[in-house]
Design goal:
5-stranded antiparallel sheet, OB fold (Dihydrolipoamide Acetyltransferase, E2P), 169 residues, 40% strand, mainly beta
């Protein structure tokens, strides 16, 4: 992968998609939900970061542990298919299965046949992270129908700590 005539990452395509070495590589590869926040705390196992009024917890990379100091700017990405909508018919979210909880309203959607892409704006105050929305979420079309997402526009969601990929500066 080149940027401005210099190599920024040399790796097989799968590694470029799943482990980009920087925010620039993630954007060039077309990854969605490439976001910016600030470090709260970093350990070799986990990174806590502040984003849109939320404190999120991410797993630190076991192969390239990243230990930025608190308040450092940090880029990260969340694959849209790894954002989980929380079913409303199942009661209160279980903290063992649902982490990095937040809520928001759907502000856009696109139906791609087997998958629906949803654009969600968090309930948190402030400007959305990606224009008019904060996160893209992908759900199978069947899930879209079963959960009646077309009718119900406000959702709680969770993101597993292992689904938040921190990008070294």
């Amino acid at each position: 992968m080149y940027e401005s005539g210099r190599v920024i990452q040399s790796a097989p395509r799968a590694e470029l998609l799943w482990q980009p070495a920087s925010e620039a590589v993630a954007r060039i590869m077309g990854l969605r939900n490439v976001l910016r926040g600030a470090v709260v705390k970093a350990t070799p196992e986990r990174i806590q970061l502040s984003w849109r009024g939320q404190t999120l917890e991410a797993v630190n990379s076991p192969t390239r542990s990243y230990l930025p100091p608190p308040m450092s700017p940090i880029a990260f990405f969340i694959r849209p298919e790894y954002v989980r909508l929380i079913r409303k018919d199942r009661g209160t979210p279980d903290p063992q299965h649902h982490m990095n909880l937040m809520s928001g309203r759907l502000v856009g959607e696109a139906d791609f046949g087997t998958v629906c892409t949803l654009r969600l704006r968090l309930d948190a105050p402030g400007e959305p992270a990606q224009g008019d929305f904060d996160l893209e979420v992908e759900v199978p079309h069947l899930v879209y129908e079963i959960l009646e997402i077309e009718r119900d526009r406000h959702w709680q969601l969770s993101i597993h700590r292992g689904s938040i990929h921190v990008l070294p500066a």
